[in-house]
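Hello again,

I reread your note about wanting to compare the complex against the isolated chains. To keep things tidy I'm splitting this into two emails, and this first one only covers the full assembly. Below are the input lines as submitted, including protein chains and any nucleic acid or small-molecule components. They are followed by the predicted structure of everything together. The single-chain runs will come separately.
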Amino acid sequence: MKDHFSTFHPIVNFGYFAAILIFSMVFMHPVFQCIALVSAVVYSIMLKGRGAVRFNLLYMVPLLLLTAAMNPAFNHEGVTILFYLSNGNPITLESILFGAAAACMFVTIIIWFSCYNAVMTSDKFIYIFGKIWPALSLIFSMALRFVPRYLTQIRIISGAQKCIGRDVTQGNIWRRARNGIAIVSIMTTWALENAIETADSMKSRGYGLPNRSSFSIFRFDSRDMIVSAAMLGCMSVVLIGAAMGENTIRFFPSVKMIELTPFSVVVYGSYLMLCMMPVIITMVEEIKWKRIESRS
Amino acid sequence: MPDKQLTERHWSKRMLLASVLILLVIPATIMLGVFVLNDRKYYFISLLIVLYTMIPFALVFEKRKPQARELIVIAVMASIAVAGRAAFFMLPQFKPVVAIVIIAGVSLGAEAGFLVGAVAGFVSNFFFGQGPWTPWQMFCFGIIGYLAGILFHKGALGRRRLTLCLFGGLATFVIYGGIINIGSLLMFTSHFSWEALLATYASGFWFDMVHAIATVVFLFFLSRPMLEKLDRIKIKYGLIRAQD
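Full-complex prediction:
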């Protein structure tokens, strides 16, 4: 399935991930954590298909268990003592629960970041920060371009060196190391000379002059408007809930959270809406597309 | 020398901004963590603080409207560092990034050293995956480059291979390892205790050791040719400016 959330304006994408990452880092309430974890997993599978399933099962589940186990080993707070370790330290129910919650949070953030990597491509990032920090964004975008270019150039230089018997695969180990250094050295000279040429070319085309516009393919249209309004609505409900203590949980000395009220259900609902927003958008678009297809 | 005065003014502006951040915003953030978030969100708070420390560099750099040549030399050094990391990716922790950042700091000045480090950390994670560890890596690489520049400027760090290797090894092990381990501990447990920190340092010891050795090896082989090349470029194209 094609992801439709990434076709929205970069500011919508970035704002969504910034909000969701902060919320996932801050809210420790079990309901909120479950909502965030499930949504992150669903979205990552939707974005990357079977690769995401493998990633989540192979890396995230062991990581979850390891992190959950780490906390009770070092943290002995809490009133419900389950048993004592051989060195006399107690293992408490609270520290196990806290460990599980912290592990869940950590894994959720990692999975959200994996979604972020797929949606927020570097061009979107540069588009957003190019306005605030033009010089630094230019450095980022140049560096992103240079890296693959240098790797290719190293291959070219190494091919040329091979013809005269000076590649890293030729000679004894000392010789190979020296050849390697020589290749890096040639690459550096080339890179610096080439860079100065690029800089001069930029200058002669008027880089840094005032009143110059920059190329952008992104347009903030009504669709972005609607989604941002929905996002802000959900966020404000969640934040009001947070201010009223709906999202907090106390672990030590004993586990305690606020009682369930109709309002807390509303808060959970809007958090679910917020976390599932990319998934909902994608599904709605898919249904729309199917309907148009079947009509014709 | 107008050039010199310019850098001094920037220098003091950065100090002013940094001190505002350190004296007002960082304590406010810690207070937020203690009172509003019940003092359990160590990772979130520490992440904010790490980001704050990088803001003065970004703002000052943007403010002085750097020339295209300057931008591009920074981008080149950062890309060489990232390409080096990519070339050695099969050897875990055997990364040339710190070595390149130190060379940049020594040759191009403290500010450029910081930027090369931060950009290298950021850009390399576009290839290896962004995550909650990115700001920590950016900060650690950046601050090592900054220190290298400052120490060189003050005359404490020469261009001799031996001192550079010594500084590189120590900086990688103590600064990079020291800060990154705190970051990963806060990331994993979100509960801070001294035993856990000690355990993290112990488990990270060999990783940091390999990283430090890698830095020393790369500095040993690369420092002289790289510094020579940068000098040549600086003289040939007149990039010499007052070092800050």
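For quick reference: Chain B touches chain A through 57 residues (CB under 8 Å).

B.
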